[in-house]
Design goal:
Blueprint lengths: L15 E2 L2 E3 L2 E3 L6 E5 L6 E6 L3 H16 L8 H17 L1 H12 L3 H22 L5 E3 L6 E9 L2 E5 L5 H6 L2 H7 L2 E5 L6 H13 L6 E3 L4 H10 L5 E5 L2 H12 L4 E5 L5 E4 L5 H13 L11 E5 H15 L20 H16 L3 E4 L3 E2 L6 E2 L2 E4 L6 H4 L6 E7 L2 H9 L3 E2 L1 E5 L3 H10 L4 E4 L14 E2 L2 E2 L12 E9 L11
Parallel strand pairs: 1-5, 8-9, 8-11, 9-10, 11-12, 13-14, 13-21, 14-19, 18-19, 21-22
Antiparallel strand pairs: 2-3, 4-5, 6-7, 7-25, 12-24, 15-18, 16-17, 20-23
Helix pairs in contact: 1-8, 2-4, 2-6, 2-7, 3-4, 4-6, 10-11
The chain binds nicotinamide-adenine-dinucleotide.
Length: about 500
């Protein structure tokens, strides 16, 4: 399939040109090259970024290092840092429409959804501000008369933050405010496909009072600017969200200097449905879970594992509801599913569907690209008769494609759910407490939803088992992730001598 991208200008939009933020200054890249971002929903250029280089990454890392070793940020009180984060949260909320618009045109996601993500992001900045003031270590007054032990939590240092294109503002907000709360300094690299809202965040943080060099934002491709951020000896930690392949490479790169690594990677998330479930609720959640963000979502519920007794009825009803999902212009407030990120990615999604059909799966709805006279779009697609060994059932398609598998016993459902490389999230649907809890305890994934799907809160940790990642974001320990512990072992009075006579 060759995807023809149809251009449709966005009324009133002028191409926006961005610079990079290094050491408190907005600068061009060392080589002066730029990257053009074409809006996936409209097929026209909407933004122009600096194509950063290794030299730019090194300047940004040097600025972050200086700001950490000599600057005010790590030495401020937590209360002062917390106030800066709260001011930033207010400004994010004030500029939410502008930020959401940039995320929608660059990623192709629906504008209503982008606005929801901005609301969630502002909440995360507030949550991090609260945690900043509760970061503390431990003390041990139980080690005998001569000893007092104090365990300090110290900011880990310079953190490289690398983010993907599917939730541009939300994902940087799952990392940066917690690193800042701990007192770290940072170099941030957004995806080269969706850099605008992160660059605007730089303006917001300057205005909120973050000192120069504490947050540096550089743009460009992964190999050019991302890779040096993972290898440079002056970086202490890498916090990465993206594909499992690049996550693996990031870990190997960081291993050369033994940096701490936090990874949020891919998923192939099952929803297991028993015959006693509230099927009306589930069918709504299945369509939402599979097509939200056009399925370009690490948490997409892309594998339905349905009990054999209900599989035909449920598949029919999901197919009927899929036909009603509103696919279209990301800027239309009624749109539920927007555009696919690039023409190449659309081809990859369609390729998974063709391969599954060749291998014996049946297309219950959709299955092809949609010609809407603009940009590039994929029809919401449901495939039945999928076997667990097919690529579409095991690999991350990252498109609006739902695979239906079936089971007879609870053990079989658990086996199918766990028989892949990923373990990010899962859902279970049943009115029976024992059934939900058995699945909740036995399926190996970082989040298990029971009778709901893809809910979340800043308070709840998020992350993956196995090849879905390493470490957790959000939750009450999120700031601790960006710290080192240091033991102060203090002695009072005469020591018991080793050889010196007492
Ligand atoms: P990607 O891995 O291609 O890119 C992610 C980031 O890494 C981008 O900024 C990219 O420029 C950079 N990068 C690429 N090569 C690099 C290199 N050699 N060194 C350093 N950085 C490099 O991922 P993507 O296509 O942008 O995003 C989609 C993927 O992200 C999916 O697999 C999805 O599941 C995953 N994701 C996971 C979560 C989660 O929380 N688990 C959330 C969102 C997305």
């Amino acid at each position: 399939m060759t995807v023809l991208v149809k251009p449709k200008p966005i009324e009133g939009h002028k191409v926006r040109a961005f610079q990079m933020l290094i050491d408190g200054k907005w600068v061009d890249s060392a080589e002066g090259r730029t990257i053009e971002r074409v809006a996936p929903g409209h097929g026209v250029t909407v933004s122009r970024y600096q194509a950063g280089t290794k030299a730019d990454a090194e300047k940004a890392i040097a600025a972050a290092r200086r700001a950490f070793d000599e600057g005010a940020w790590p030495r401020m009180t937590a209360s002062e840092r917390s106030l800066v984060l709260l001011r930033a949260a207010d400004m994010i909320a004030e500029r939410a429409d502008e930020l959401a618009y940039l995320d929608a045109i660059e990623s192709g996601k629906p504008i209503s959804q982008a606005k929801g993500e901005l609301g969630g992001a502002a909440d995360i900045w507030r949550y991090a501000a609260a945690l900043a003031r509760d970061l503390h270590g431990e003390s041990y007054n139980t080690l005998g008369d001569g000893t007092l032990g104090v365990v300090l939590r110290e900011a880990i240092g310079v953190v490289s933050i690398i983010t993907p294109w599917n939730f541009p503002f939300l994902i940087v907000s799952q990392k940066l405010p917690f690193a800042l709360a701990a007192g770290c300094t940072t170099v941030v690299k957004p995806s080269e496909l969706t850099s605008a809202s992160t660059l605007l965040l730089g303006e917001i943080l300057e205005a909120a009072g973050v000192p120069s060099g504490v947050v540096n934002i550089i743009t460009g491709t992964g190999p050019e600017v991302g890779a040096p951020m993972t290898t440079h000896p002056d970086v202490d930690m890498v916090s990465f969200t993206g594909s499992t392949g690049v996550g693996r490479l990031t870990m190997a790169n960081a291993a050369q200097t033994l940096k701490k690594v936090s990874l949020e990677l891919g998923g192939k998330n099952p929803q297991i449905v028993f015959p006693d479930a509230n099927l009306d609720e589930f069918i709504d959640a299945a369509v939402f879970g599979a097509y939200f963000n056009a399925g370009e979502c690490c948490n997409a519920g892309s594998r339905l594992i349905l009990h054999r007794d209900i599989a035909d009825e449920v598949t029919r009803r999901i197919a009927a509801l899929s036909a009603k999902v509103k696919v279209g212009d990301p800027l239309d407030p009624e749109t539920q599913v927007g555009a696919i990120i690039t023409p190449q990615h659309l081809e990859k999604i369609a390729g998974y569907v063709s391969a599954a059909s060749r291998d014996g799966a049946a297309v219950a709805h959709g299955g092809t690209a949609l010609d809407l006279g603009m940009g590039q779009f994929m029809a919401p697609t449901i495939l039945s008769s999928v076997r667990p060994d097919m690529a579409v059932a095991r690999e991350e398609v990252f498109g609006p494609v739902l695979s239906v598998l079936t089971f007879e016993t609870t053990e079989e459902a658990i086996r199918i759910a766990n028989a892949i490389d990923y373990g990010l999230s899962a859902g279970v649907w049943s009115r029976d407490f024992d059934t939900c809890l058995t699945i909740g305890r036995r399926v190996r994934a970082g989040t298990i939803w029971m009778n709901t799907f893809m809910d979340g809160a800043s308070e709840l940790p998020f992350g993956g088992y196995r090849q879905s990642g390493l470490g957790r974001e959000l939750g009450r320990h999120a700031v601790e992730d960006y710290t080192e512990t240091k033991t102060l072992n203090m002695h009072m009075g005469a020591r018991t001598g080793w050889w010196m006579p007492r």
